[in-house]
Amino acid sequence: MENKNLELEEVQNLLEKLQSLLHLWMEGHLSGEDAYILSIATEINHKALQEITRVRGIKYS
Question: Highest taxon of the source (predicted)?
């Protein structure tokens, strides 16, 4: 179980960094197509973070 938590923590840290970068990018000047692609990536990232916390038995905020 300890190994699984360690792996999940590493993945969660990477996803949180990705989410921060995506939000920063979305604040810039993007075309409509770019914004759509970024919104999809952000949603996927959000769902992945939710899944990690679900597996850990905690609530994602």
Answer: Bacteria
Distance between terminal CA atoms of the chain? Answer: 23
Instruction: Establish if 58 belongs to a structural domain.
Output: no
**12-24 burial, b for 16+ CB within 10 Å, e for fewer?**
beebeebbeebee
* 61 residues of the chain, pLDDT tens digit each: 677 777 788 788 888 888 887 887 778 766 667 778 788 888 888 888 888 888 888 876 6
Q: How many domains does the chain have?
A: 1
pLDDT attached to residue 21:
77
Asked if 22 contacts 45 with a C-beta cutoff of 8 angstroms, the reply is: yes
